């Protein structure tokens, strides 16, 4: 039952109170509820709170229609007239349950739509991959996940940072598991063998990172599909990273690796007619003409090129790329130079776009680059995994940089980095698997967590490869103020306490995410209501 904040007129009820003893009891309940609400908002379990009214316009669900910033424990039943749920629709609202059973017309769910709440059970809907946003159920209290019939894709970050999630049964229909989809959970076993053994399968970078799992079971490679071919399997960087025991062995075995190329013959591919181009746009270069040997060669980008297409020079065994003639180049596509032997210094041209479109995902990943000369173009953003798995030992980031993507410099040999003051976001796993010492990693992780983008919309996991336990390991047995002003108490292992606790003779209560309850009440499962002081957090008598 949801009791709204209203002024109750005793005069209106007076006559009924005199003639109806039962009504007197009702009035008493209303009076108590009003007192509790004036103390502050009530925290209750999801099954005790009805759904607040929703803001739906032209089939798009934007969230709740009232002006409240929190709806603790509320249930969201997605109506059958909703076709789309907007980005951040219910982000950080404190909701306790979401029900898609009536949403028969639902076609898409936006980024962070249900992130940072108190959901405990979730049914993942069967929607087109392109219509599912990132980090949909990130940072909740999920302990049970079920999947709608026919689900083939689990999108990036979908269930990341759900520390109560200890097991998941993946559907047989799965063909893709996104980057960081289950990162930061507590899966004890990662079992992919529930997936149909003849399926193609793409498992993204960091998909199961930091679970502390002791066992990983992957799909066998000896079964042929209906076409008589071996299924295509792809495992990203650090897919099973930061786990334990046998899982660590699997993580190493299935880590994304460079090909082992032979030496080849040195020389350059430097004439415009040596390349192929997009028939619809001849300034877009798409690769090297068939029959031209690329192993050991340097690619010289011609001066007429404005864009390098996705996958253009992927896995060709080239040793260098020369942009000196490419005075009009604006974009380098996804995987454009992925998995080669590009070594030493990479010099990027000044003519590149300054925004995220300049360098695509994995553009230079899996090479041997030891140094990057950045373009002098006011570059503001670097894309996901763009320079991952190289030989970088240090990196001087441009002072115009505002955003670095997920895994951008993952799996290098970087020992330290200075984050420019212009920087607003550092992506998940951005500098993971490098050579930072733990103390420096913790310091840099804390700096990232205090960036404005993280306070307003938090979804960064292990930017420097430090797990939650490691990042808190230096602070034990004391209260710690978080960047958003809330408080936690870290135990002897450096982990946040949860639930009802007695510390130094004082009774406190901590939410499932470790934040201390202050200035409002909590209804326990036995129905008892407990109030906590707004300043100290002490339980009030």
Query: Which structural class best describes the helix and strand composition?
Result: alpha/beta
The CATH C-level class name of the domain at 478-531: Mainly Beta
Unreliable residue runs = 1-48, 469-473
Specify the overall morphology. globular
Question: At the third CATH level, what is the topology name of the domain at 478-531?
Answer: left handed beta-beta-3-solenoid
What Rg, in angstroms, do the CA atoms define? Answer: 27 Å
Number of helices: 6
State which percent range the strand residues make up. 15-25%
What's the CATH superfamily of the domain at 478-531, by name? Cholin Binding
According to DSSP, the number of beta strands is 33
Strand order of the largest sheet: 2-3-5-7
Mean of the pLDDT scores? Answer: 85
Helix proportion range:
10-25%
Distance between the termini: 25 Å
CATH architecture of the domain at 478-531: Ribbon
Q: Profile the largest sheet.
A: 4 strands, mixed
Note the main attributes of this structure.
541 residues, alpha/beta, left handed beta-beta-3-solenoid, four-stranded mixed beta sheet, four-stranded parallel beta sheet, 6 helices, 33 strands, 11% helix, globular
């Amino acid at each position: 039952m949801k009791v709204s904040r209203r002024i109750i007129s005793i005069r209106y009820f007076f006559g009924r109170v005199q003639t109806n003893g039962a009504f007197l009891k009702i009035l008493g309940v209303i009076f108590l509820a009003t007192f509790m609400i004036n103390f502050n908002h009530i925290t209750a379990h999801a099954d005790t709170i009805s759904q607040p009214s929703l803001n739906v316009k032209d089939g798009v669900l934007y969230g709740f229609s009232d002006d409240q910033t929190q709806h603790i424990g509320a249930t969201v039943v997605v109506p059958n007239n909703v076709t789309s749920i907007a980005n951040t629709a219910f982000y950080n609202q404190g909701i306790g349950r979401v029900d898609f059973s009536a949403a028969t017309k639902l076609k898409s769910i936006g980024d962070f739509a249900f992130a940072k709440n108190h959901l405990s059970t979730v049914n993942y809907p069967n929607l087109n991959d392109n219509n599912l946003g990132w980090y949909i159920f990130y940072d909740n209290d999920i302990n049970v996940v079920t999947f709608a019939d026919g689900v083939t894709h689990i999108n990036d970050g979908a269930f990341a940072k759900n520390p109560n999630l200890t097991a998941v049964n993946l559907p047989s229909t799965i063909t893709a598991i996104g980057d960081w989809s289950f990162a930061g959970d507590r899966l004890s076993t990662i079992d992919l063998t529930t997936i149909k053994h003849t399926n193609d399968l793409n498992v993204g970078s960091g998909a199961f990172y930091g679970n502390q799992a002791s066992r990983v079971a992957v799909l066998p490679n000896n079964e042929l599909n209906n076409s008589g071919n071996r299924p295509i399997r792809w495992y990203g960087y650090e897919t099973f990273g930061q786990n334990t025991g046998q899982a660590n062995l699997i993580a190493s075995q299935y880590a994304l690796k460079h090909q082992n190329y032979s030496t080849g013959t040195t020389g350059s591919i430097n004439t415009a007619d040596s390349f192929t181009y997009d028939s619809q746009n001849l300034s877009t270069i798409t690769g090297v003409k068939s029959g031209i040997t690329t192993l050991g060669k340097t690619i010289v980008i011609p001066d007429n090129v404005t864009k390098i297409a996705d996958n253009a020079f992927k896995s060709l065994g080239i040793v260098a790329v020369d942009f000196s003639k490419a005075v009009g180049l604006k974009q380098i596509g996804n995987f454009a130079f992925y998995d080669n032997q590009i070594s030493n210094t990479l010099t990027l041209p000044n003519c590149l776009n300054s925004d995220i479109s300049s360098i695509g995902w994995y553009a230079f990943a899996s090479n041997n680059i030891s140094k990057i000369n950045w373009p002098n173009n006011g570059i503001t953003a670097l894309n996901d995994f763009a320079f991952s798995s190289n030989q970088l030992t240090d990196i001087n980031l441009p002072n115009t940089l505002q955003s670095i993507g997920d895994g951008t410099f993952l799996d290098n040999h970087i020992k330290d980095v200075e984050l420019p003051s212009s920087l607003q976001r550092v992506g998940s796993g951005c500098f993971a698997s490098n050579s930072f010492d733990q103390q420096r990693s913790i310091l840099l992780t804390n700096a990232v967590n205090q960036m404005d983008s993280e306070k307003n919309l938090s979804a960064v996991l292990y930017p420097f490869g430090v797990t939650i336990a490691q990042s808190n390991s230096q602070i034990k047995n004391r209260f710690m103020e978080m960047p958003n002003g809330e408080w936690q108490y870290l135990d002897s292992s450096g982990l946040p306490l949860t639930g009802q606790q007695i510390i130094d003779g004082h009774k406190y209560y901590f939410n499932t995410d470790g934040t201390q309850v202050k200035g409002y009440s909590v209804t326990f499962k036995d129905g008892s209501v407990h109030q906590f002081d707004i300043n100290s957090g002490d339980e009030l008598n």
